Amino acid sequence: MSSYKIRVELLSEGIFNSGEEQKNSVNNKVLTDKDGFVCYHAKTLKGVLKERGELIGKNLLSISSKADIIEDLLLELFGSRFNDNSISETKKGIMNLSNLEINGEVKKIIKEINILDSESDGYKGITKYDLIEAQTNIRTHIQLEEGIIKDKRLGSYHTVKNGLIFISDINFDREPAKDQVALLNIIVNSLDYIGGCTNRGRGKVKAVLLKDDKEVSIEESLEVILGE
Predict the structure, then answer these.
(1) How many other CB atoms are there within 10 angstroms of residue 125's CB atom?
(2) What are the tens digits of pLDDT across the range 170-225?
(3) CB 32 within 8 Å of CB 128
(4) How far is CA 207 from CA 1, 153, 168, 185, 217, in A?
(5) Which of 83-92, 103-112, 128-137 has the lowest mean pLDDT?
(6) If we measure between CA atoms, which residue out of 57, 32, 12 comes closest to residue 190?
(7) Type and span of the H or E element at 169
(8) How far is CA 146 from CA 5, 20, 183, in A?
(9) Predicted TM-score of the model (pTM)
């Protein structure tokens, strides 16, 4: 079976909120794995893609003669069929995603550095907190309570630095059909924002679909879905 991945590059600061507070640092901590590498939850990513798929699907329905086919493809990929903003049919989709994570090779290099440093005297190494600091900025905002600004109180939160690249592995229950890959590619390429505060310009991204580590052609995908 071919290998499929989603590659996401942050074009602006993003907010991947964990919902936790980091003591003596920020009120809203960034989501990370156990080692301190920033990540974006797979379930959230799939939800964003499903929502985008609904929008793309409705737009394609208005210009494509393959209306029924497009609806079926969304059902096969995500496990739900949308009808007037409500889910009219559900089943298990064939697509499963991993968390969006920093490239595995980068993680490997950091771990190797720590192993080498541990063999020397005065070992310090790269800690989880070092990694979080390297990948994020700390921003502040005014805190509100029942719509009223709290006196002399600022909240703080992590933003993920722009320029970072994340990868999500896609596991299909079976080899996906050409038209399934084509529609998924259109959906992925349409993704423009992820994370929190996207309405304020946070989390602008460039996303592409990779097959065997090569970018899938968006032109060919459009031809498959829209061509007669």
Answers:
(1) 13
(2) 999 999 999 999 999 999 999 999 999 888 889 999 999 999 999 999 999 999 98
(3) yes
(4) 23, 37, 11, 9, 13
(5) 83-92
(6) 57
(7) strand 165-172
(8) 43, 21, 44
(9) 0.85
